[in-house]
Design goal:
About 35% of the residues are buried. The protein has 4 domains: about 1-50; about 55-185, 3-Layer(aba) Sandwich (Glutaredoxin), CATH 3.40.30; about 185-440, 3-Layer(aba) Sandwich (Rossmann fold); about 460-494. With about 500 residues, it is an alpha+beta fold. The strands form 6 sheets. Strands 8-7-9-10-21-20-17-14 form an 8-stranded mixed sheet. A 4-stranded mixed sheet has the order 2-1-3-4, with helices on one face. Strands 5-6-22 form a 3-stranded antiparallel sheet, with no helix packed on it. The two termini are about 35 Å apart. A hairpin with a 3-residue loop joins strand 5 (about 155) and strand 6. It contains 13 helices and 22 strands.
Length: about 500
Amino acid sequence: MNFFRNMGGMASIRDTFKTRHVKYGGYAAFITLAVFAGLILLNLTMGRLSLQVDLTRDRLFTLSEQTLHVLDQVETPVKIYGLWQPGHEDPEVMYVINLFLSGSRNISFEAVDPNRNRGFVNRYDRDRTGISSGSLIVEGNMGNRVIAPGEMYDFHEWGGFEIRDYLVERKISSAILFAGTGVTPVIYELIGFWNVDDRMSFTVPVINDFMERENFEVRQLNLLLSEIPGDASIIALCLPERDLSPTEMEKLQVYLDNGGRFFVMANYMIEDLTNLNVLLADYGIGFNHGYVIERDPSYVVPSAQGALLPDLAADHDITRALSNKRNTPVILLQPMPVYEVQPRRREIEINPLMFSSPGSFLRADIEQIDADNLPGDLPGPLMLGAAVALPGDNWRLPTDTSPQTRIVAIGDPYIWISPFVFEAYHTNMDVFINSLTWLDNRPEAAAGRSKSRVMSPMNITMVHFIVYAVILIAVIPLAFFISGLAVWLRRRHL
């Protein structure tokens, strides 16, 4: 009792809680506790929702819109088997598989230990060459596909093997499309245009295996001896050493007039492409004889004479997802340009795919070796590839289902061979396969064929350095000092 008398009693204690210092201190403590409680609740909520944001440059861990479109078409059960020993699963592959599982209820997954289930694995080993641990088996009502571990990544060997690009989404999408539909588009490669027919053919084992994994079947066709089969999805003319004959041109013309698909890669060494250009002119394009010379160093491959690094168009399905990959560019070997024919039919849609730099020019006389621009040379920028679409007769009507003629013309006959010569330029194959899938009107055509893991260095100019230094050294510390000073001045008068 003496203590409370000395302190002024309970009334004095109550009066103490009414002072401004205690009030503001109580408010601050209450707000602090409320913030902590809110953070805890937010953390628990976010943990239950499992929300994640993919901040990688190429969206490595997010399914593309085209893959989601493929999943929408899966109407029958598709099973993905992962051949992993327990505890040896690839976490990055599993992450992508889980995205597929969440994208379609018709897709399921099961891990299988290959060492304990040899009979199961052997069922899918058609060639009896063995299926390695880490492979994926995608099985549906219409068939199955095996994806080997090495097919899920692109590697480069610069002082040792290193993963550069992820292909997991692309491979699983293609396998699901096949396993769910059983449809394999047939590409007929025109033969009789080379001195040695199988020299650069799609039927070369390494190319044929690649095409098969991309869900294409390749057959050969001699138009001088045969008609174009009814099951032809695409007709391909690659690296020709002569022009089309009148008979071949006439058969191709009938095929294209009925909604055919044509893929052509021309060779600048052929001086006479009259019949080929007459065929293409009906669809608004043609090849300019000669090859492109680049004078801009940033568009040149220093180690390869005549090799160019073109700009890719950002507004077409074939190149849109690849247009920002300057660190993994496309390489073209002495390409010849594609030009637009004027006048042409209004309904023809011509979309450029690749360009040379403004400093480039077309060397029309290929016998001249002078590096300077000569009379008769055509200044750049030059179109090095084009995609042409000609809708059907009723193309303006929403209900139009008539076949649409499509053509892809590229001025480099080696674009699909370059990755096997220049190991670093696998984006060439992306353009090549994207062209075929666009011609076939497959939904994954617009998808980035691979997702790059390469970390590009940050290039900072002196101006950027000064700006960042002022912000970090002066602006941010000064902002903290001013805000702290304002709070102190306010509280000292409470």
